[in-house]
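The data layer described in this paper is built around a simple, fixed record for each protein. We quote a single record here, exactly as it is kept in our systems:
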Amino acid sequence: MSQKPFSRKKLFIWGTFIFICGIVFTGVFNVTLKATNTTEFCTSCHSMQINLAEMKENVHYKNASGVSVGCADCHVPRSIGPKLWAKLMAAKDVYHEIMGTIDTPEKFEARRWHMANLVWDKMKASDSRECRECHSFEKMDFEEQDKSAAKKHHKAIEAGETCIDCHKGIAHEEPEEPEDEDA
């Protein structure tokens, strides 16, 4: 007995169903991405309260212009591919919070150098992509910078350096390098 081919009606029904599911999935997906990009969400774990307190004392958070950044502005790329990868990699922070690896200020500080280096390496590899969403050498007015900063920025351009090469510890306290090599 041969199978009956899909009728146009069944094809239309299935197509409509898949289309509607796609719209619903996209909506839920985008709402979830937006919700997990808030500073409130990022700092809902106890361990991230340390970072929040530091950030609130920083010029990127509180300044004369009233322009403020949140966690996602520096830690989550804008384009979808890198954004999804960043979200996936952030799951390890949740894992370490749940497992108790970084759930106290003391444990957090013990791993801070390692965690900071992971972020710095990521920023270096992306040419400080998230910094460059707001800052760029092309738009800098070197005449408005103090002489030392302007000179350093010119040298950085010539050397092909990126923001994170000089500006570690700009939003959070820069951790001290541990004495032992394995930390």
